[in-house]
Amino acid sequence: MDVLNNLLDGFQIALSYKNIYLCLLGCIWGTMVGVLPGIGPLAGITLLIPATFGLGPTGGIIMLAGIYYGAMYGGSTTSILMNIPGESASVVTCLDGYQMTLKGRGGAALFISAWGSWVGGTLSIVGLMFLTPFLANFATKFGPPEMFAILLIAFILLGSLGRGSFFRTIPMVFLGLLVSTIGMDPFTGTLRFTHGVTELYDGIDFIPVAMGAFGVSEILISTEESLVRITHRVRLRELLPTREELRASWGPIFRGSGLGFLLGLLPGSAHVLASFVSYLTEKRLAQKPEEFGTGRIEGVAGPETANNAASGSAMIPFLGLGIPTGPAPAVMMIALMIHGVRPGPLFISEHAQIFWALIASMYIGNVILVILNLPLVSLFVNMLRVPFRILFPIILLICLVGTYSVNASTTDLIVLLCFGVFGYVFRKLQYDVASFILAMILGPMMEMTFRQSLMRSAGSFSIFWGSSISLVLMVASGLLLLWNIYRELRPTKATWESALKEGG
Amino acid sequence: MKKILGFSVFTLVCFLSLSMGLIQAADYPTRPITLINPMPPGGTLDVQARAWAAVAEKYLGQTVVVVNKPGATGMVGAVAGAKAQPDGYTLTVASVNFTNAIEWERANGRRPPFNYDDFIYIGSFTMSPTLVVVPYDSPYKSLQDLMKDAQAKPGQLVYCSGGLYGMSHLPIAIFANATGLKFRHVPYKGGGPCLQAVVGKHVDFAFQYPPTSLPLMRGNKLRVLAVAGERRLKSIPDIPCFKDLGINAEYYGWVGIAAPKKTPPPIVEKLREATKKTAEDKAFNAMIEKPGDEVYYLHGDEVRKHIEKEGKTIAEIDQELAKEAPKK
């Protein structure tokens, strides 16, 4: 049992006082940047890089990794309690999490999300431990056509995201795609819809958009009804999930772990995609999909598990090959490189100590985070007892400060506020804002991979079924599309009855 | 009336003495210095700037706070840096991205939002060439193989970069221009995804920087064909550089520090001295070398000259590239 021996050695290093302390520090800091809207793990890790100059490579990476997966735990808090995505992977948690809070089940949602995070996080470390070299190589097989096929599946699933009718979802999807085209064309450098504004060259970042469309619009809506809204005392029993809620979340937690782990391997901000795909999958599999968006625990458990699992597997290409596929692993890799440890294909064999200490510390860190987060549940839920007229200005202020602090950009603030009003108007008109945001995330990725593929193949579409992976994925997306159409068109009992009634 | 006059004289004196204090280089710096980095957090450039900030503190006697202000390939941050108070308390991370951005804007007939002369250059501390990398089992054993094949199949070989007209696209464009070869370009979002595409054989080759490429070479995932510069690298002495191969296609990723153009000369001198000392500092050298780069110090005036030279090369390339881009 080579792996177990190595892991034991790893635990010996990770369990030193210094490393436990650093792990704890990383986890607390990660939870904080996760909770604070706007600031995500990337900013959190970057801020602490200078602090690792004085630490060894092992201590440094233990702390930074703690921030990364810790942020996934913290991100759900504001999503669930205030409808403000704490970081990008928790956008989708708002949909059902906040509805649960309105029903007085916010505590349960937080509990399940911490529990799911732990399961997802821990399972993905198991995967990381056994499969890193294999999966790192496997991940390089995913080129643009394979990525495009995966995104296509996500896009087809997107059609079922909305709670409202087709005509209230599809316009928002198109609007999202339209907004996502703003900025510089990544292939030709042509400026699209920038109107000479330099700040728009990079397009509109979806984080301030999501915070505006969900969070700020929520505040605006609340101003209409804050006098009416009753905050009730939360009893301990209400903090804990009921037996049905626990039972309902098992499936999503395990599916979320698997989905998150696989999608985390893909380049880009995979944990965002993982949380969305998990939500859409749960909705597709649910007995009553129409209840999603009204506060189903499955809509919290799945995505919150998936983003943690993805944050674990996102480290595989970086640990196994030295190729950071997302921004956060890139920063962690540089923190190692400053100490002369260069992650690469030989990293695990040459720096076995660091690798196994990191793995061991991630097991420890996940336990720390659960212990840390469960008591926080009651604290956060009690925060809701602060009268709304005091709480909401504070939330708005935190949103503004958080958004500004990421890029020191006033443009982001304008985006936040504009999309706050946008979200308010469209929610009042009962359009589906979540579809808008997911389209904004998927749009540029699909455009990029589609054009990359065609550039690679000199314009031939055969590249999309050229490799066996992309062929399978393409067929799967085709079948999914057909199934979707069939599900919509097939005669249901209700339509039969109404048809009979009309006929009779 | 007298009171008001007295008060206004008092405030004036206060104000003057305060501003004198700011300008007086003898005291500079008396408070923390902000260093604007126009690039997103986490890249090699960001880490090198942070390393400078961490070590320069020792020689300046004040903390240096790095603030990332990314956007529009560095133009947003550069504009903020150029417009800052010229008192030495707001500096900007200058890099080859300045030249990339300005020349691209010019080539497309736009007026760049900032210019080379908006800054006084304090100094630069790295100047790294790219490496020509191919997948490990690629049929190309040397750069000549690759060039021969490219000649036989013009426009068929595909390369990737970390972004259009960025630090890993321009060196290839310059190389293609110098050798008269034609390639197809597939841009990725960042150097990491591009390297993954090379390892996964989704593209034929790329020009990437040493810190991330060398470990992959040692792990038999990549083959390095050449160093795209005029000198070989210490860490891979047996790999030929462009000068050895008779190719004249230079492009370096350099990183340095700049101050707004009206910064008083004594302050500039002080900053230049601190940067020189930093570049000679052991700890700083270790921080740059351990990831696989080398410290290469240039005085501010030399930086300006280098920009002049590289600006010309890049302008020529960008005009070619702009012609290929579809017109509005």
Written description of the protein model:
The complex is a heterodimer of chains A (504) and B (328). In chain A, helix 4 packs antiparallel against helix 13. Chain A is mainly alpha-helical. Chain A has a two-stranded antiparallel ribbon. Chain A contains 22 helices and 2 strands. Chain A starts with a helix and ends with a helix. The mean pLDDT of chain A is 87. Chain A has one domain. Chain B has 328 residues and is an alpha/beta fold. Classes of the chains: A mainly alpha (504), B alpha/beta (328).
Radius of gyration of chain A: 23 Å
The separation of the N and C termini of chain A measures 73 Å
Q: What order do the SSEs of chain A take from the amino end to the carboxyl end, as H and E?
A: HHHHHHHHEEHHHHHHHHHHHHHH
- Kindly estimate the percentage of residues of chain B that lie in beta strands according to DSSP: 15-25%
Largest interface: A-B, 57 and 65 residues
Gross geometry of chain A: globular
Please summarize the sheet with the most strands of chain B: 10 strands, mixed
Spatial ordering of strands, largest sheet of chain A: 1-2
Helix content of chain A: over 70%
User: Unreliable stretches of chain B, pLDDT < 50, 5 or more residues?
Assistant: none
Largest sheet of chain A: 2 strands, antiparallel
Q: What is the fold's blueprint, element by element?
A:
The complex is a heterodimer of chains A (504) and B (328).
Chain A: H1 2-14, H2 17-35, H3 41-52, H4 57-82, H5 93-102, H6 106-140, H7 144-158, H8 166-180, E1 183-184, E2 191-192, H9 206-225, H10 236-239, H11 243-264, H12 270-285, H13 298-313, H14 316-321, H15 327-338, H16 347-350, H17 352-383, H18 388-407, H19 410-428, H20 433-456, H21 468-489, H22 493-503
Antiparallel strand pairs in A: 1-2
Helix pairs in contact in A: 1-17, 2-3, 2-4, 2-17, 3-4, 3-15, 4-5, 4-6, 4-13, 4-15, 4-17, 5-6, 5-13, 6-11, 6-13, 6-17, 7-20, 7-21, 8-20, 9-18, 9-19, 9-20, 11-12, 11-13, 12-13, 18-19
Chain B: H1 2-23, E1 33-37, H2 44-60, E2 64-68, H3 75-82, E3 90-95, H4 96-107, E4 119-135, H5 143-152, E5 158-161, H6 170-179, E6 184-187, H7 191-199, E7 205-208, H8 210-218, E8 222-228, E9 252-260, H9 265-280, H10 282-289, E10 295-299, H11 300-324
Parallel strand pairs in B: 1-2, 1-3, 5-6, 5-7
Antiparallel strand pairs in B: 3-9, 4-7, 4-8, 4-9, 4-10
Helix pairs in contact in B: 2-9, 2-10, 4-11, 6-11
